[in-house]
Design a protein that fits this description.
This is Permease prefix domain 1-containing protein. With 448 residues, the chain is mainly alpha-helical. It contains 16 helices and no strands. The protein has three domains: 4-79, no CATH class; 94-275, no CATH class; 285-414, no CATH class. Helix content is 80%, strand content 0%. Helix 10 crosses helix 16 (416-444).
Length: 448
C-alpha cells in the first residue's frame, strides 16, 4: 500500500496509540490528530514524501507525555483534575536544567548591568527611549536559545532591533515634545513583537504559537508582579533593619539595587513561566473569570460618566487616556479567557458575560472616538490625538469582530476556533501600528 492510503493508515495507528494513552482525554485526540495532519501537510508542501513527512511530524509533536502536558495547559479547566502524572517516565536530566538556569542568570545579570550602564551614561530622554532596547534583547536571547532559533530568524530579529535602535537614537526628538513620549511608549510594543517571534521559534504565522505567546505574556505579567511585590517587601524590611542601625539604604537602592534587580526579575519571571510548563492551571486565564464581570460594571460606570460629561470637546484628556487603558484591559481579558476556554465546551453563561463586556466596551469606545474626533475638529490634530485615535480605531475593529463571533458562538452558528484564530491573527496589527508611530510620527509632526 502506498500514497495517501498508506499515510492515512499510519495516522490512524498513531491516533489509536494516542487514544489508548491514559493521560489524554478522548475529546483531545481529534484536535491532536488535526495538529499532526497540519504538520504533515506543511512538510509535504516543503518537498518531503508521505513517509518522511509522517515520521518528521510525529517527532516534532514530541514525546507523548510532553504533548499531554501541552494539552493539559491549553485545556486547563477541563483537565484540572486529570493531572498529567506519568510515574514510569524517566527522571528529568539535571544537566539541561542547570544549563538553562545558567543562561537565565547570565541574561538577567546582563540585562541588569546594561540598564545600570544606561542609567549612568544616558540622559533622561535617551534612557526613556532606549529602556526597552536594554532589556528585550536578553529576553529574546533566552527564548531564542531555548527554541534553538535558526540563523535566518536570529538575523531578522537583530535587524529589526538595530533598525528600531537607529530610529530612536538618530531622530532629533524634542525632549519636551509629544513624539518622543509616543516613541518611548510604542517602541516596547515593537520589541515585544520581536520577542514573540523568538518565543514561537520563528513560527509566528502559526495561530497556535501566537496563542501560546499570549498565554506566556499573561503569565509573565502575573509572575513579575508577584516577584515585584515580594522583592518590595524584602527590600523594605531590609531598609527598615538598616535604618535602626543608622545606615541609609536609599542611595544603594537607587544606584544599584533597582537598576540591577528590576530588569533581572523580568528574566527570572520569564524563566519561571517556562519552568512551570508541567503545571496544569495557569494564573492569568483564571483571573479573567474574576475580573470580567467587575470590568463590565466599571465600564458601565465610565459610560455614564462620559454620557453626562456634556460637550464632548470639554471631556478631560486624561479621562480619554484612562478609557484607552480600560479598553486595553478588556482586550486582555478577552484574549486570556479565549486562551483558557475548552474549544469543545458548549457556549454558556461566561461566554454571555464576555459578549456583554465586549458590547459595553464597544459603546465606550464609540463615545471616546466621537470625543476625539470632536476635539480634533475643534482644536486641530496633534501627535497625541492622532495616536489615540488610531489606537481606538484598531480596538473598535478588534472588539466589533470579537462581538460578532461571540454572538455567533452563542447562537451555535460559529465554531470557537474562528474566534480564537481572530484574536491571534489581529495581534500583529497592533505591532505594525506601534512601529508606524515610532517611525512616522516624528517626521510627520516635525519631532514636536
Amino acid at each position: 500500500m502506498s500514497g495517501p492510503d498508506a499515510l492515512e493508515v499510519q495516522v490512524d495507528r498513531w491516533r489509536d496509540y494516542v487514544r489508548r494513552h491514559r493521560a489524554v482525554a478522548p475529546d483531545d485526540v481529534d484536535e491532536m490528530t488535526d495538529h499532526l495532519r497540519e504538520r504533515i501537510d506543511d512538510l509535504r508542501a516543503a518537498g518531503l514524501d508521505d513517509d518522511e513527512a509522517f515520521l518528521v511530524a510525529v517527532k516534532r509533536m514530541g514525546r507523548l507525555d510532553a504533548v499531554s502536558a501541552e494539552f493539559a495547559r491549553a485545556h486547563s479547566e477541563r483537565l484540572w483534575k486529570q493531572l498529567v502524572l506519568l510515574p514510569d517516565s524517566p527522571a528529568p536530566d539535571a544537566d539541561p536544567a542547570r544549563r538553562e538556569l545558567a543562561v537565565v542568570v547570565g541574561c538577567a545579570v546582563g540585562a541588569g548591568l546594561t540598564v545600570k550602564a544606561g542609567t549612568t551614561f544616558l540622559d533622561e530622554a535617551a534612557l526613556l527611549l532606549n529602556l526597552g532596547l536594554l532589556v528585550a534583547p536578553f529576553v529574546a536571547a533566552y527564548l531564542g536559545w531555548k527554541r534553538r532559533l535558526a540563523g535566518r530568524t536570529v538575523a531578522a530579529l537583530l535587524a529589526g532591533a538595530v533598525v528600531l535602535g537607529v530610529v530612536l537614537n538618530t531622530y532629533p526628538f524634542d525632549p519636551a515634545g509629544s513624539t518622543l513620549l509616543l516613541a518611548a511608549l510604542h517602541a516596547p510594543v515593537v520589541l515585544w513583537a520581536l520577542v514573540g517571534v523568538a518565543y514561537t521559534g520563528g513560527r509566528w504565522r502559526s495561530p497556535d504559537r501566537r496563542m501560546d505567546f499570549v498565554r506566556f505574556t499573561g503569565e509573565l505579567a502575573v509572575y513579575y508582579v508577584l516577584l515585584a511585590l515580594g522583592g518590595g517587601v524584602l527590600v523594605g524590611l531590609t531598609a527598615g533593619l538598616f535604618s535602626l542601625t543608622g545606615l541609609d539604604l536609599e542611595p544603594a537602592m537607587e544606584q544599584w539595587i533597582l537598576p540591577l534587580c528590576v530588569p533581572g526579575a523580568f528574566l527570572v519571571a520569564a524563566w519561571l513561566v517556562e519552568a512551570k510548563q508541567e503545571v496544569v492551571e495557569n494564573i492569568a486565564p483564571v483571573l479573567t473569570r474574576v475580573f470580567t464581570p467587575l470590568t463590565t460594571l466599571m465600564l458601565l460606570a465610565c459610560l455614564v460618566v462620559l454620557a453626562t460629561a456634556g460637550d464632548l470637546t470639554t471631556v478631560d484628556r486624561e479621562l480619554l487616556i484612562l478609557m484607552d487603558g480600560v479598553l486595553l484591559l478588556v482586550l486582555a481579558l478577552v484574549l486570556y479567557s479565549v486562551s483558557a476556554r475548552d474549544p469543545l465546551r458548549r457556549p454558556g453563561l461566561f461566554d454571555g458575560l464576555q459578549l456583554g463586556l465586549v458590547v459595553v466596551a464597544l459603546t465606550v469606545d464609540a463615545v471616546a472616538l466621537t470625543a476625539m474626533l470632536t476635539r480634533i475638529a475643534e482644536f486641530g490634530a496633534s501627535p497625541n490625538k492622532v495616536a489615540a485615535l488610531g489606537l481606538n480605531l484598531l480596538l473598535a475593529v478588534h472588539l466589533a469582530r470579537s462581538a460578532w463571533l461571540l454572538l455567533g458562538l452563542l447562537r451555535h452558528r460559529r465554531a470557537f476556533g474562528v474566534l480564537e484564530r481572530w484574536q491571534t491573527a489581529y495581534l500583529p496589527v497592533y505591532a505594525a501600528w506601534a512601529a508606524f508611530v515610532v517611525v512616522a510620527f516624528g517626521p510627520s509632526f516635525v519631532f514636536a
